[in-house]
Amino acid sequence: MSTLRHRLTSLLLIGLVAALPGPAALAAGPVEGAAAPAFKLQDQNGRWHALEEYRGKWLVLYFYPKDETPGCTTQACDLRDNIFAFHKIGATIVGISVDDVASHKEFSEKHSLPFTILADPTKETAKDYGVLTLMMGVFPLAQRDTFIVDPKGRIAKHWTKVDPKDHSALVLKELGALQAKAPEAKNAG
């Protein structure tokens, strides 16, 4: 019962906050061309992942506010529905929010997400990427931002305050353009 009450309270707060102007990030993140900040976080199954394991691959690293909220579910399912297109061009998708491992496991299983979702309960990774924000000045969450990290570990593209609907098509298009500029890295990894 307490889990249900917690979820309902969270959904209500997120809904109320959605109507407010977007808050600013608490710290500046990396700029395009800079090295992607390192991280070591657990996924929805409790397995540890570090940025260096994605070296040599195109990485779509997307941050989102909260599991099971409407926009976050729309975004995750849109990426899920285009997973074969991402695989075809050699790109890996990884999601990150400040929710815990158990929340991610439930979210991933409920929506059959075929990619890794990392838990950032200390909020350090969100802060390092410049996406940590305070909703209503109190609740620390990640903004809905997406980064493309190139095979050398640099930020190739950064979108801020992403519209979750059809964002995966935009990311796929950008990945194609980036890979065309660096054909030797197209199918890296």
* Poorly predicted ranges: 15-23
One letter per element, helices H and strands E, the order comes to HEEEHHEHEHEEEEH
User: What is the radius of gyration computed over CA atoms, rounded to a whole number of angstroms?
Assistant: 16 Å
How many H/I helices? 6
The count of domains is: 1
Gap from first CA to last CA? 45 Å
Q: Biggest sheet, in brief?
A: 7 strands, mixed
What is the name of the CATH topology?
Answer: Glutaredoxin
Strands across the major sheet, in which order? 2-1-5-4-3-8-9
User: What structural class results from the helix and strand content?
Assistant: alpha+beta
* CATH architecture level-2 label: 3-Layer(aba) Sandwich
Range of strand content: 15-25%
What overall form do the CA principal axes indicate?
Answer: globular
The counted number of beta strands is 9
Assign a percent range to the helix content: 25-40%
What would CATH call the homologous superfamily?
A: Glutaredoxin
CATH C-level name? Alpha Beta
Arithmetic mean pLDDT: 87
